Amino acid sequence: MALMITCAPARLAAWKEALGPLLPGVPLRAYPQEVADPAEIRWAVVWNHPLGDLRRYPNLELVASMGAGVDHIFRDPDLPPGVPIMRLVDRLLTTAMSEYVLLAVLRHHRQDAGYRAQQAARLWRELPAPDTEATRIGILGLGVLGTDAAAKLAALKFPVAGWSRRAKSLPGIESFAGEAGLAPFLARTDILVCLLPLTPATRGIVNARTLGALPRGAYVINAARGGHVVDADLLAALESGQISGATLDVFNQEPLPPDSPYWSHPRVVMTPHTASITVPRSVAPQIAENIGRLARGQPLINLVDSAAGY
Ligand code: NDP
Ligand code: OXD
Predict the structure, then answer these.
(1) Does an H or E element contain 222, and which?
(2) Which of 57, 174, 247, 279 could form a disulfide with 41 if both were Cys (CB 3.0 to 4.6 A apart)?
(3) Between 3.40.50.720, 3.50.50.60, 3.30.1640.10, 3.40.50.300, what CATH number should domain 91-270 receive?
(4) DSSP annotation of 248
């Protein structure tokens, strides 16, 4: 029995170093070059595996995502039926995402772009003072990442609300849920943060209709997936002034093509899908834990719901 690792070659060594000591005696096979016998593969740790590949392993018992998101797994229409899929829930991933969101919120809120432009022009001028308690933040997705970011923003005294499938009861956070909750959530949101999983229900959720439902001049932060945003609609909203600016970490096409208007947009801050980076040594224990649980016949942790897609 062996564990298969499917990822970019540059990341392979770190995954082997992290998983090896936790799984003594288990061969770690890099896909595709080290996988000679598909029948020996019992567990797969993957990021962007080739479509249909996971059906090739007749003894596969677990698929583990190398990230919190599993859209890269569910984009495969030919997954092995009944094989459990786990995602990562990790202290470092959560902390880094909240840092990213706070940085983006504060950069916008404290008019950093304006002050940088003034610095470049050697201009000593005061911009209007921001009012934190009047700047309403709305987080699409109140899961592991959204909840942590919401709590940290609320601690800074921003009024924070979240939108999720099921209503939440979180101290100091206003909860909106389901289709009916979306319009009132958007109407009270000055800074929209997307931390949703990408599923058929959330694809394209940041579009002309939802952007138009925000107060004029609202700001958008997307650190979830590029597929949540209809790019033409966001660009049009930036052009019209409906949206004053955006911070984008994720894109419909990654790496972002050189001719994308986002690269040089004066009101877009972008990063190359690095809001929160998986650190193999931090997340390997939960994968090893599930391999142990499978052997002991115990319930697995961090499983995703294949029907919901997250
Ligand atoms: P969780 O599964 O913990 O949370 C997902 C949240 O989204 C839940 O609150 C869920 O609602 C809500 N949700 C899902 N579908 C819908 C829907 N149709 N309508 C309303 N709400 C919905 O995920 P995480 O917080 O751990 O991660 C979120 C995403 O962040 C990941 O899927 C990934 O794509 C992205 N990510 C990006 C990274 C980056 O570097 N850019 C790094 C890590 C993650 P409910 O609570 O009711 O189930
Ligand atoms: C993730 C990611 O899903 O890094 O963890 O995007």
Answers:
(1) strand 218-222
(2) 57
(3) 3.40.50.720
(4) E
